Amino acid sequence: MHHRSHVRGAGLGLRRALLSPFAQTPGARDQVDFLEVAPENWMHLGGALGHVLREWTEARPFVCHGLSLDIGGPRPLDRDFLRDLRGFLKTHGIRDYTEHLSACGDEFGHLYDLMPIPFTEDAVRHVAERVGIVQDQLGLRIALENVSYYAQPGAEMTEAEFITAVLETADCDLLLDVNNIIVNAVNHRYDPLDFLDRLPLDRVRYLHVAGHHEEAPDLRVDTHGADICPDVWALLDEVYGRLGPVPTLLERDFNFPPLTELLAETDRIRGMLELREPERETRRHA
Predict the structure, then answer these.
(1) Helix, strand, or coil here: 77?
(2) Cα Rg for the chain, rounded, in angstroms?
(3) Are strands 143-145 and 109-115 parallel, antiparallel or unpaired?
(4) How many angstroms separate the CA atoms of 53 and 271, rounded?
(5) In contact, 265 and 32? CB cutoff 8 Å
(6) How far from the centroid of its chain's Cα atoms is residue 55's Cα?
(7) pLDDT > 70: percent of the chain
(8) 4 falls within a domain
(9) Is the model's pLDDT at 250 over the cut of 80?
């Protein structure tokens, strides 16, 4: 299999709110195979928090998932940010960097919400060109995440066609967010398995899973503030059926349960991954 990522197993998004529970729970850090941070939240921290992060990144494998690159937006890319990001990745020995396939700003600045990019040929070219600049500046291949969206302005192609076209034109990878497939499938009334099979799965770097809010039977809101739903667990298993044991990260941004409950979810992911391991061994020796 492709297994492009530099990490493996079951991961967890490291938020500042989790630092204290981890510190108070001996051995908890060793229960997580890898961690993910948003570089924007950590890269200019000095002092105690800066030391804490360095200690974590020396102890465990890390990936970075960005928030503000604005890969689909109209403004010029922030070269200073990219320079600082490259330094941050190097300092902490992080070799996986991912971003959202969306726009998070307009010409007036950050909107702090991920805006859908129109599914058009022009947008494919625009994003691919920007990905090329980012990969050159960082000196590494990046991955883009399929995002949740609530409107499709001026679409010329489907979401799956758009994602595929961007990844192929830019020659970058996919951070596959399993939760976002379920959210979008409900909101836009499509079949999640059909959508999954239209994606370039050979480009998957790693997976995200998270909880979301069921606003109504036909409306889901992507919140990262709840336990993982049964339909997300089911789709995750379908992904493993197609790709084998791909590294998988649990995202939780707020409304944190006790650390033991979060670790129970990462344990469940690890158990699902381990069920797929013998298949990989068999394939290797076949």
Answers:
(1) coil
(2) 18
(3) unpaired
(4) 28
(5) no
(6) 23
(7) 92
(8) no
(9) yes
